Amino acid sequence: MIRCTNCHHPYPDTGVPYKCPTCGGVFDMPELPPFDPAQVDRTQPGIWRYHHTFGLPKNAPVVTLGEGNTPLVWAEAATGLSFGKQVAFKLETLNPTGSHKDRGVALLASFLRSQNITEAVEDSSGNAGASFAAYAARAGIKARVFIPDYASGPKRNQIAAYGAELVRIMGRRSDVADAVRRAADDGAVYASHAYLPHLLPGFATAAYEIVEQLGQSPGTVISPAGHGILLLGLARGFDNLKRAGVVARVPRLVGVQALSCAPLWAVYSHGQAGLGWVTEGDTIAEGVRVSTPIRGDAVLSAVQASQGTLLATPEENILPGRNELARRGFYVEPTSAIVWDALGQMIEQAPEPVVVVLTGSGLKSN
Ligand SMILES: [Zn+2]
Fold first, then answer.
1. Spatial CA neighbour of 67 closest among 94, 91, 40
2. What burial letters (b/e) apply to 124-157, b meaning 16+ CB within 10 Å?
3. According to the model, what pLDDT value does residue 80 have?
4. What is the pTM of this model?
5. Counting CB atoms within 10 angstroms of each CB, which of 11, 23, 353, 355 has the fewest?
6. How far away, in angstroms, is 174 Cα from ligand 1 center?
């Protein structure tokens, strides 16, 4: 059930408001429809085998490009440092548009179709925009995507190639968010991957797959975090498996941010005082350059409940991390590469098995 986190109003049956029409609060789906192993339908493609956990309206069509079902590949964590542990890498880079966003955006496109939406706007640093453009094309929805001028060339080209209208905004990521909210105020349907909670059950499918692939719950899951929505979806997914009795424990969740723009890390490490020195600094990890995470509270509580943590990667360690991953055959964008430094920070204390989510393909970076 989707409700406003502030006034608890349920999400309306018709229309696609991106925030609560009553109070302006953020909508959330705190508990996903229960996971039932007997209802997992292996005749369906990718994430759609978990259709019963999506909470989509009955008339929502399956919109798919084959997202999900990504490989889990083991590799040695780090040379040069003395540990040399084996870590499992979840290759979200192999989704249809090259990032994990496809898991959530497939559900978003399905939901939009159920509401007879034919035109929508979205804002993104690149990956969500590319994913939205692809699934909008698939669903016959006209897409307009607002992106920051610094978004990488390959991402811009990808969005345009799918047929979406590209709106480039000068300035910071937050200026892009302001611009798209103005479009929404003027009446556009704002199909926001950050505000709309309809994507969360899609990200939860990564948790279901990881447990199937490992044959058990991981001890630790590490992922990049901008808004932290992937991390939150994973948390909800593992909770769902625990409630169903499929796993006995949930893993420690570790979110990684770029140090130059690390609000979740700042608050987790230093409390509210940490917010005082959050900057929207330059970082090559453009996908996690988010100074005001929309579901920050929920992400922090999920991390805390899992006994996990948030870490920040200094800028100078991002590209060396990208190269270390590439030497193992994993070519990721800088946003994904921030996990490497974080692994070095915490792997000694991390309960095993350790799973690292590689979110975006290196082919998307300049
Ligand atoms: Zn409300």
1. 94
2. bbbbbbbbbbbbbbbbebebbbbbbebbbebbbe
3. 53
4. 0.96
5. 23
6. 23
Distance from residue 142's CA to the centre of ligand 1 (Å): 29
- CA 8 to centroid of ligand 1, rounded, Å: 6
Distance CA 279, CA 189 (A): 30
CA distance 10 to 1: 7
Angle (nearest 5°) at CA 180 between 175 and 182: 95
CA of 121 to the centre of ligand 1 (A): 22
pLDDT tens digits for range 297-318: 999 999 999 999 999 999 999 9
CA of 11 to the centre of ligand 1 (A): 9
Predicted local confidence at residue 81, as pLDDT: 53
- In angstroms, the Cα distances linking 323 to 118, 317, 329 are 42, 10, 10
What pLDDT shows up at residue 85? 86
Residue entry with tokens 């996908």: 287
8 A C-beta contact, residue 244 and residue 35: yes
CA distance 58 to 36: 18
2 Cα: distance to centroid of ligand 1 (angstroms):
11
Going from the Cα of 26 to the center of ligand 1, the distance in angstroms, rounded, reads 7
In this prediction, the residues of the chain whose per-residue pLDDT falls under 70 are: 78-83
Instruction: Encode pLDDT of 247-299 as tens digits.
Output: 999 999 999 999 999 999 999 998 888 877 777 788 888 888 888 899 999 99
CB atoms within 5 A of ion ligand 1 belong to 4, 6-7, 9, 20, 22-23, 25
Kindly report the CA angle at 48 between 101 and 110, in degrees rounded to 5? Answer: 65
